[in-house]
Amino acid sequence: MFDSPLAASPYEVLGVDPAVGDDDLRRAYRVRLRQTHPDTGGDAAVFIRVQHAWELIGTAEARARYDRGRDEDARRRWAGPASRAASSGTRPRSRVHGQAGAWRRRRYLQLAADWAGHELSEHQAYDPTFVRTAPWEVRRMLADALAEEATGEMVAELGIGFTVWHDVAVGTDAAHKLDHVVLSPSGLYAVMSEDVGDTVRFRQGEAIGQALGGSTPIADLLGRARAVARTAKVRFGGAILVLPDDDLDQVVVPLGERRGIPTVAVRRSALRGILRSGVPGARTIGGNELFDVRTRLQQTVRLV
């Protein structure tokens, strides 16, 4: 919950200064509980965040541990893509083309330098104090890079029956890329990984939320999937929007058939299961068609 560059700190969730005294911290926690409790008209997602914040800083020992380790932990998470780490196990991994999150990470470094007004070392660019004070659009770029890397790490562990392409080009604008294309025994899937730092809900098949502004991630995902499908002459069996677990009230949110493609939003922790079992209503691929689809994609996919 507090891992994202977009996330409020436990102190911010409780509405207090990090230097607040223990008694005032406890009072603030009780006030926030009353304000956010679902039985009194509060938001259940915010109520859970308040409880989690208290778990992290509610006792002197926990607070000292959080204050001591949070910046170093954040620097370590934000500076190095998890998808680059070598697997420590012996289980065969998926066939992977490209590097998840690579384009957005490069773009983040560009945006961070532009905002700072000078070139930055990686140490400076991923310093938690710098990241937390950067404009929202800069932090969002890093958050999305981390989201894509987390997805990349998960799909790499699916096994040899899966083939994955990351950062697939769609047209001439790299920003309009398709985050992941996953070919599995259960079907061919277009996948987008997002982190908006807030609870995401849905209306008429599209994601909505204050943090989303006017963006349309579902429409973007489907449009990019159709562009890749036209180029490669393949059919996607499903489309998946992947969100951090805390940003989605349900494990899986079925969005119905959108533009002819069964579409779901899923918590990140549920992604592997969905890709193994298949999106409900997705068209399965098997036998010679599986090899034909893989060949078509290998011949046509461009990475950004």
TrEMBL record:
Coiled-coil ranges from the UniProt annotation: none
Region (Disordered): 68-99
InterPro entries according to UniProt: Diphthamide-biosynth_chaperone, DnaJ_domain, J_dom_sf
Residue ranges of every copy of the J domain listed in the record: 9-70
CDD domains: DnaJ
Organism: Microbacterium istanbulense
The name this protein goes by in its record: DnaJ domain-containing protein
Classification via SMART domains: DnaJ
